[in-house]
């Protein structure tokens, strides 16, 4: 696990830390070619410099965000923001379905919108994959 991400996880409460550690280990295992780092103060994984998935601590738990998640056709992922992102929130490690998460990560690698060039394109997203 990326040491910056490990430090982020270690700063969380014990219950949130267990959620973060599990999410990071599953993401790392299923996106082996992704670059992981702390981006805008939260753990994020990138493929070809494009943000794919990340998580963050919110007041009511941990939010797992997929930048292209609205294109996954997954009812458990809820729309987030004005672009193509979708999220799921966890307050307990028991809520994490490993099989769902692996499926979402497969889709995250296969279905991507070009967030990397969003500013250059003046807020217009283009589909990469």
Notes on the structure:
The protein is of the alpha+beta class. It has a single domain, classed as Aspartate Aminotransferase, domain 1. Helices cover 29% and strands 26% of the residues. The protein contains three helices and six strands, in the order H-H-E-E-E-E-E-E-H. The mean pLDDT is 91.
Give a short summary of the structure.
This protein has 3 helices and 6 strands.
Topology:
Blueprint lengths: L2 H8 L3 H17 L4 E5 L2 E6 L2 E9 L2 E6 L11 E2 L6 E5 L7 H13 L19
Antiparallel strand pairs: 1-2, 2-3, 3-4, 4-6, 5-6
Keywords:
129 residues, Aspartate Aminotransferase, domain 1, 6-stranded antiparallel beta sheet, 3 helices
Number of E-type strands: 6
State the helix count.
3
CATH topology: Aspartate Aminotransferase, domain 1
Can you name the CATH architecture?
Alpha-Beta Complex
Q: How many domains would you count in the coordinates?
A: 1
How would you describe the shape? globular
Fraction in helix: 25-40%
Radius of gyration: 14 Å
Q: Give the C-level CATH assignment.
A: Alpha Beta
Distance between the termini: 27 Å
The major β-sheet equals: 6 strands, antiparallel
What portion of residues belong to β-strands? 25-35%
Unreliable spans = none
Strand order of the largest sheet: 1-2-3-4-6-5
Order of helices and strands: HHEEEEEEH
Structural class: alpha+beta
Instruction: Give the integer mean of the pLDDT values.
Output: 91
